[in-house]
């Protein structure tokens, strides 16, 4: 799968770890930055990743920050990017199965790296259920 990934400084170490792990699993990972743990403004890095998701340049996106909240907000400002805020396995499953999310946000300060990997695994493996959720998804961006 072709996956976009981006972070600010507070999500940088998880971005690096997840990027390497996903590549080792055989995924193509496009890194939209940031490229160090020096303080930076998250919209600069998150927006290009979300735009790539929305235009189909990548199949899925993963955005990371300290809490993940700001990153989710930025990603969801891009029409066609549906970013779910995930902090455990259930949120990762539901954001795919019910919301057809094509991007997730994770907070490095709030979950362990092991949990972040489980979240990503579920995000990548869970199919959209369709059915009753289709009109709900259609109503997001009429």
From TrEMBL:
It holds the Pfam family LacAB_rpiB. It comes from Candidatus Methylocalor cossyra. The keyword Isomerase applies. The keyword Isomerase applies. Keywords: Isomerase. GO terms for molecular function: isomerase activity. Its EC number is 5.3.1.-. The lineage of its organism: Bacteria, Pseudomonadati, Pseudomonadota, Gammaproteobacteria, Methylococcales. This is Sugar phosphate isomerase YwlF. It is an enzyme of class 5 (isomerase). Gene3D superfamilies: Sugar-phosphate isomerase, RpiB/LacA/LacB (3.40.1400.10). Belongs to the LacAB/RpiB family. InterPro entries: RpiB (IPR004785), RpiB_LacA_LacB (IPR003500), RpiB_LacA_LacB_sf (IPR036569). The gene is ywlF.
